[in-house]
Write a structure and sequence with these properties.
By secondary structure, this protein is mainly alpha-helical. It has six helices and three strands, in the order E-H-H-E-E-H-H-H-H. The radius of gyration is 22 Å and the shape is elongated.
Amino acid sequence: MGTEKLKIGELAEKTGITKRTIDYYTNIGLLEAERSASNYRYYAPTMIERLHIIEQRKQQGLSLIEIQHELNTSHEEIDVQMLRVKMQDVTSLLEQINKQDNKYIEKIKKNVSPESIALMQSLFLLIHN
């Protein structure tokens, strides 16, 4: 299968799931679609497998909310890894700044809210654990 996008009817045909159900899943966030300039929805081929997973989990007795949580958890794990990489970059930058000029760091601290500092400290702990 290529990277060509599928219209809702094509997705329904390939999966055996009705357009109405696909539309519902899209509206509640279980599926992702891109909108064309003429407002048609186009689905990535990966949505075929996602639909199979959704239907399989439904047959296993999971609710749509549980399925959505399960599907989104894997995305959150990816986001945490990306966040760690970005925070390592920020940490390196701050270490370089720290070596150069302590007055500059104090100026940065004055422009950052206490909440942001607490968040950065928490993220720093996540990176190093």
